[in-house]
Design goal:
Layout lengths: L18 H46 L5 E9 L2 E10 L2 E12 L4 E8 L5 E8 L19 H5 L12 H4 L8 E3 L18 E3 L6 H25 L4
Parallel strand pairs: 6-7
Antiparallel strand pairs: 1-2, 2-3, 3-4, 4-5
Length: 236
C-alpha cells in the first residue's frame, strides 16, 4: 500500500473557521495594524512639522529684525485673545519687537510677521503664508531680479542673495496705519500706535484686494504689539 499523504491547510487553521467569524477577524487585525502604523507615522511627521515651523519662525524673526541676536517670546491677552510677540535683543538691549498679523485677501488668509523698532516704525515685514492668485495676488511675495539682457550678454556678475520682495519692502521705515493709495481719505479704525496719518502703499496692479489685506495684517500686528508692550511696561 502507498503512503498516506496529509495536506495541511496553508492558512494555518483559518480555513476551519466559519466565514462570518473569519472575515471580521481578518479585517479587525488589518485595521489594528493600519491604525498603529498611521499613529506612528503621524507622530513622526508631527514632530517634523513642529521643527519646520520653529525653524521658519526663527528665520522670519531674523528677516524682520536682523539686528537682533536673540528673541524673547512673550504672551499677552489682547482684546480677550492670546497674542504671542517677540522682543528682539542685542547685547541685552531691546532693538525692537515682532509679532504676527493676518487678514483675508482675495482667495486666502495672508499671514504676516512684522518687526518694529522701539518707536514702532516698521523695520521690515515678511509674508509667511498666502495662497493668492498666481501672477496677481501672489506678487506680494515677488522678488524682482536686477539682471538685464544686456548685462548677461556682457557677462556681468549679479549677486542677488539678499533681495527682498519689492512690495514688502515698501513698508520698511514707515509707521502704521497703512493703506493702499487708492483708499486715501477713507476712515481708519485702528487705535494705539496705529493712530494718525496713514502711510500710503501703492497697490499691486490687478491685486488691490491682496495689497489691502497685507496693509490690514500689518496694521493688526503693529496695533497688538503696541498694546502688548504697553501692558508689559505697566502702560507707560
Amino acid at each position: 500500500m502507498g503512503e498516506r499523504v496529509v495536506i495541511k491547510n496553508a492558512d494555518g487553521g483559518f480555513g476551519k473557521m466559519p466565514d462570518f467569524v473569519r472575515f471580521p477577524l481578518v479585517l479587525t487585525i488589518v485595521g489594528l495594524v493600519s491604525a498603529i502604523s498611521l499613529g506612528y507615522l503621524n507622530g513622526v511627521t508631527k514632530k517634523v512639522r513642529v521643527e519646520m515651523e520653529k525653524k521658519e519662525k526663527e528665520e522670519s524673526l531674523h528677516v524682520v529684525l536682523p539686528d537682533a541676536e536673540s528673541f524673547e517670546e512673550k504672551v499677552a491677552n489682547i482684546d480677550g485673545e492670546e497674542f504671542r510677540y517677540y522682543t528682539g535683543l542685542r547685547g541685552g538691549e531691546v532693538v525692537g519687537y515682532a509679532g504676527v498679523g493676518s487678514a483675508f485677501g482675495y482667495s486666502s488668509e495672508i499671514v504676516v510677521m512684522v518687526g518694529v523698532k522701539k518707536d514702532f516704525t516698521v523695520n521690515a515685514i515678511n509674508v509667511i503664508s498666502q495662497k493668492e492668485t498666481p501672477g496677481l495676488g501672489d506678487k506680494v511675495c515677488e522678488v524682482l531680479s536686477k539682471k538685464t539682457i544686456g548685462g548677461l550678454i556682457l557677462g556681468k556678475e549679479y549677486h542677488e542673495e539678499g533681495l527682498r520682495p519689492w512690495f514688502q519692502e515698501a513698508f520698511s521705515g514707515k509707521k502704521a496705519p497703512f493703506m493702499v493709495s487708492k483708499d486715501a481719505g477713507s476712515t481708519d479704525v485702528n487705535s494705539g500706535a496705529t493712530q494718525g496719518k496713514a502711510s500710503l502703499i501703492d497697490a499691486i496692479t490687478g491685486a488691490t484686494i491682496s495689497s489691502r489685506a497685507v496693509c490690514k495684517a500689518v496694521n493688526s500686528a503693529v496695533d497688538k504689539i503696541y498694546k502688548a508692550t504697553s501692558l508689559s511696561s505697566g502702560g507707560k
